[in-house]
Amino acid sequence: MIFPAGYRTRSVLADCAIGVVIALVSIPISMGYALVAGLPVVYGLYGSLLPIAVFALVTSSPRFVFGVDAAPAVLVGGMLSSLGIAFESAEAVQLVPCITLCVTFWLLLFFCIKADRILTFVSQPVMGGFISGIGITIILIQLPKLFGGTAGSGELFSLVMHILREAYRTFHAPSFALGVGTVALILLSRALLPKLPVQPLLMFAGAAATWLLHLEKLGIQTLPAVPRGLSPITLPQLSLIFAHYKALFFPSASIALVILSETLLATTNVALKHDETINTRREVLAYALGNLASAFTGSCPINGSVSRTGIANQYGVKSQIMSLSAAATMLLILLFGTAFIRYLPVPVLTGIVIAALIGTLEFSLARRLRAVDKTEYAIFFAAFFSVLLFGTIYGVAVGVLLSACMFIIRQSKPATDFLGIVPGLKGYYSLTRRDTAARAIQGAVIYRFSGPLFYANIQQFCADVTAAAFAGAAGGARVRAVVADASGITSIDATACARLVQLREKLRARDVRFYLAGHVSAVNDQLRSFGAESFIYDKVVRPRISLALSDAGFRFPYETEARDASTDAFYSEQLAEFDWAFGSSSERLKEQLAHEAALLVLQTGTFDAEKIRELALRIAKGWWNDADEDDFLDLLEMQILTLQDQGLKRGIESGISLRHALLEERLLEHNDALMKKIVQRRAERSARLKEKHPAAYEQLELLHERYFTEIAMEQPELARRLATLISASEAGSKTE
Length: 736
What we know:
The protein is 65% helix and 4% strand. The chain contains 32 helices and eight strands.
């Protein structure tokens, strides 16, 4: 995707500049991984020219960087070792392009069979753990080069042992200081000067230091000299593939799978961060054609570079003009600039790579998951450690398996609820939430099940329905009908269908009628297909809950079960709306808002109702109304009680009192029932405050008395109506 939608021509220069940076950073990375793959270092530069340009012309991703990178290079090096072929030998130079050609074949096969669909089974926690595992693995591979050692290979334990051996044998303090200093400077500049291209600046500074100060005399390694010129375009020797087909053809499939999974997951991760859509099948074709170009230039297999993509996105890349610019820059380097490469210090270049990899780690996602969903948090680290301990392929397999298991677990325990009605309102409301005044219909059970019915959750469905029907879940009256609100049931499998037939017969034997209501018509097709035609013919399925109740003999207006006085309440859509949106977090959210509003009041020294309302709308994301604001003012008053400046406190309290009066006048115009509910909630909160903070409770009571006195003087009718509601509330409390 050379020019993505919305691309502006003025971004061309910026993307060209980013491409230059990527080319310069690619010099040490591609040369190092060429050595890992058993090739002379110059082949890393060859692999960063034509293959990158081909990828840029085919890919649908505007931001991803392709090139010579760790995983394929390590696997190719392992194949050469198993064949007993010396690294950087003439035989290695001939055989590696053949391996790349085999990898291309597998990638083209993956494209034809649409293997990219595997990505639909990978969740965000798996993806984040996978990317982080790759990042840490490559950091461990590169780490010995910071202190004068050689790059490692393998998985976690092999890499750690290699780091320890290299540190014991070859640790070089000046190299380590130079490398760690490079990482620190990049991370610091990322925080303070994020747009500064510090990586190439540090690289050129390192080259200048080698030239002027002769760092090599201090024992600091530099890159080897590279011959000038381009690689000839040649077809790999097919005879070598046939001669070594057992050792090359099938093992190359694992390399292709690594390229597919690692690059596709990383590309998708970048696209999600930028709210972009990529064509995953087209991406696989881009990988295949890029590797075909790499085979023709004699290089090793190439894949997506997580580290260089991190650098490109740090500078705000917008299009694949970046990759074309990087290829053009590499062309100029190969033709005219290879002489300066031998001055580049290895620790500086390794530090650049490690700093870029640190920026790709997704541990911030893990922290969010820990706070929200412990299971997904565990899945993140399962994928992370799978990659770290067993490698990319096993990491992908474990990740897909975990995602599938998580899906089944969640579907096996969907949200369920029992429903009733609120007199005077349409619809059906939860009987289990405390913020509604719903009442059960006498003699009927309405059971909501929010998920597809299949073998893993049908047991829960049947158990819930049976318990409700036989144990009097509708308030103790004999249950005559059970209506399953099936609006959330999108499908039924054969096992669930058979169990539903059994459930219906079991209920019918106890003279209880059973219905499925409100589901999509496709569910009826499945019922017929799996042998439950009787559900259709006997009208066990109904398009609406009301029709099912009518069939069972219930007539509107429905007779409802009585509720205890402690739970009986007037229903208010205003009050219920906020609690419905935020559930158990609603009280905490109002307390957070009160705290921030109190800080705002302290900073300004005044009570500005409009500014506080703006703050409320921002924190509550628009779920805010007069009832919520009146409720919240009590919490704010509790926060204000901590003020030391009494003069300031009195001014603020006066502002709050006036706002209370305005809101309560408006709410009373709405209806007395709503105001009664607010008074009840205020009494409940005061009781909790009295129990936990008696001193603050006494102050709040004095504040309310003064407020009520002011209201009585200025608005006697409002005060009279409030007094009536408060008396009724207190009388209700004494009765309980």
